[in-house]
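Hi support team,

I've been running sequence recovery on a batch of backbones for a student project. Most finish fine, but this one hangs at about 90% for roughly twenty minutes before it completes. I'm not sure whether the input is malformed or the queue is just slow. I've pasted the structure tokens below so you can try to reproduce it. Let me know if you need the job ID as well.

Thanks,
M.K.
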């Protein structure tokens, strides 16, 4: 016998909003939400990130997100079936976010910047980015949530054959806000996708990226750094699904957590039987800056092919005492030495950013956060 789920006020609010939305698949989502509620720690994919509890301080009621873009969308339209991703949160974004914003990147070296903020209540949006075949482009994103609020964003990125996209994500720190960004990246053959994130956590922040990798000469690079303080929480979850042969994936994530903060990394590379000659590697490295901090990591490989080169690794530790002693002997204070060692550790994933201005800006924000932490 399955016991009924006790819904929270914000879940009841979502049900009311879904009833008013009028979309056909919104009705299906409503039934699922009534039966299961929002993700919580008893859901395997969310076991370290209890979204339902994190939203307990957020008042129900939709408040539009503040979206600032470097240009107007090429089209605004109702989300279609092809735009809707799996999972409760991206489906909520599609059902409650109004018209989807569609951006087409069709010029060589095109740059699209998105700055999204939430200040109260719950806000949802769906954004679609299409990169034309053979085009190289850049997508820069910044997310900020303040006060007890929720920003729930779904982003669908589609790359044509031979296209190249470099994506950077900056997640600004917040003590009370909740942020969920769910992305689905669909690659054409011989396409290249590079993503780099810098996150500072929130009451709960989750950056989830799903990549559909066709093989056929396509290449994927996922990198990220995180620095967490106070009671902030950041979850970086990735899934790269190799469906065809001769594909490449590289992942490198590094993070540091101090005070009573919690970092989460869940990475999975799935290789289908047809995806022979796949070359994939995933690495996560975590550094604990205090006894009360926590970092949970779960790197996974799921391989159905037999002619592949795949590896993954995970390591967790603290600042190297020998390196700290060496720097102290050369006149640095302990605070300065710790900050420098931590910065050196966290900077490596950010080195993947091609644009020098963007890279230096994120490194400067990392240094500022380190100064505040130490």
């Amino acid at each position: 016998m399955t016991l009924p789920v006790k819904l929270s006020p914000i879940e009841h609010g979502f049900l009311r909003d879904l009833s008013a939305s009028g979309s056909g698949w919104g009705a299906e989502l409503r039934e699922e939400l009534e039966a299961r509620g929002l993700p919580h720690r008893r859901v395997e994919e969310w076991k370290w990130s209890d979204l339902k509890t994190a939203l307990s301080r957020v008042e129900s009621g939709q408040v539009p997100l503040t979206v600032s873009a470097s240009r107007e969308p090429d089209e605004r339209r109702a989300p279609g079936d092809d735009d809707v991703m799996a999972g409760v949160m991206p489906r909520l974004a599609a059902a409650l976010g109004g018209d989807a914003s569609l951006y087409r990147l069709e010029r060589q070296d095109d740059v699209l910047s998105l700055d999204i903020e939430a200040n109260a209540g719950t806000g949802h949006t769906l954004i679609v980015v299409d990169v034309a075949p053979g085009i190289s482009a850049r997508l820069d994103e910044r997310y900020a949530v303040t006060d007890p609020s929720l920003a729930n964003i779904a982003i669908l990125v589609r790359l044509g054959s031979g296209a190249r996209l470099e994506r950077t994500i900056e997640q600004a720190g917040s003590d009370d806000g909740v942020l969920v960004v769910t992305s689905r990246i669909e690659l054409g053959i011989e396409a290249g996708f590079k993503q780099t994130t810098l996150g500072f956590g929130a009451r709960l922040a989750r950056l989830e990226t799903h990549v559909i990798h066709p093989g056929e000469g396509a290449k994927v690079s996922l990198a990220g750094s995180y620095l967490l303080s106070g009671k902030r929480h950041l979850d970086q979850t990735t899934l790269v699904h190799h469906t065809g042969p001769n594909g490449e994936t590289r992942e490198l994530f590094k993070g540091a957590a101090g005070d009573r903060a919690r970092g989460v990394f869940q990475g999975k590379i799935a290789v289908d039987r047809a995806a022979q000659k796949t070359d994939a590697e995933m690495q996560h490295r975590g550094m604990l800056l205090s006894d009360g901090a926590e970092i949970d990591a779960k790197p996974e490989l799921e391989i159905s092919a037999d002619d592949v080169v795949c590896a993954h690794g995970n390591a967790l530790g603290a600042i190297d005492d020998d390196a700290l002693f060496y720097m102290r002997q050369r006149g640095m204070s302990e605070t300065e030495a710790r900050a420098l060692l931590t910065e050196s550790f966290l900077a490596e994933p950010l080195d993947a950013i091609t644009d020098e201005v963007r890279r230096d800006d994120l490194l400067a924000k990392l240094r500022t956060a380190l100064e505040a932490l130490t």
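--
Follow-up from support: It reproduced on our side and the slowdown came from queue contention, not your input. Residues 356-373 form the longest helix (18 residues). No action needed from you.
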